[in-house]
Specification:
Protein name: 8-oxo-dGTP diphosphatase
Number of domains: 2
CATH class of the largest domain: Alpha Beta
CATH superfamily of the largest domain: Aldolase class I
Pfam family, one: TMP-TENI
Number of helices: 9
CATH topology of the largest domain: TIM Barrel
Cofactor: Mg(2+)
Radius of gyration: 21 Å
Strand content: 25-35%
Family: Belongs to the Nudix hydrolase family.
Structural class: alpha/beta
Number of strands: 15
CATH architecture of the largest domain: Alpha-Beta Barrel
GO molecular function: hydrolase activity; translation elongation factor activity
Amino acid sequence: MSESKPVISVVAGALMHADGSFMLGSRPAGKPYAGYWEFPGGKVEPGETPLAALVREFREEMGIEVSHATPWLTRTHHYEHASVHLRFFRIWAWQGTPQPHEGQSFAWQTPGHHSVTPMLPANDPVLRSLQLPDVLQISCVGECGRDHTLEVLAQRDNPGWVIVREPQKSREQLADFVAEVADIVHPKGGKLLVNTDPAWIKGWPVDGLHLSSQRLAALDERPPHLAWVGASAHSSAELARAAALGLDYALLGHVQPTASHPQQAALGWDGFARLLQDEIPLPVFAIGGLQAADLDTARQHGAHGIALMRGAWQ
């Protein structure tokens, strides 16, 4: 009987600039996969918390002091020599200038356009996650109005990512509205997803699909031929389902009471964070009763970002 591989607990961090660029580092000579590029970090020592290990590793590897970091993704990757349990953080503030204390190289990269190779295999899905925005905007024409929604989008230099969710519309009505949103969003570099039956969207000018929790439960595989697919989730089981299908993100909520769910028990931030305690390998957006000012709080509780419905169109 072959011996099982050891499981090594590791932290890794992405230094983040305000423009969305992030830092990668090359692995030093003498280590497995020497010369491959990765997010800097290292092993968690006995008795250390993941955050303490992150701070220590960045001090030792590049001589900076991490002052603001938030938990992000958790993944397990199986290499030939060991299985690595990776906790990823994003680092928003630090003191000092990164210096290669271990003979490595550093490179700032743009999401979706990394220029260094080869990449450590565990990092491919993480790099993709960095293409996601801080905020997802969800339409609610029934409350905010069609004209107001389109006017708000038209006034924004960067319309960001929009999820069209209009369950009251017929297929034809939804197709017309999606086309109107696409005409505004796409020329400005934004992305458009739609929350609807996957069978409806063939030929529509969309960048992806958002699944309700009911549609998520009914699927056996990720819908094919779509660049981006996400889903709504309300439990750890639904988050695990989204991860198992290889989806790109999940919305988790509701965090606070909302106008449409005033009587239902909200998760609160502590409940939201508890649902992310298990290994969640995909980015999760907090949703439900939130405003743009809640972004950093969401990140501190493990979210990639926030999703806004009514708050997106004020």
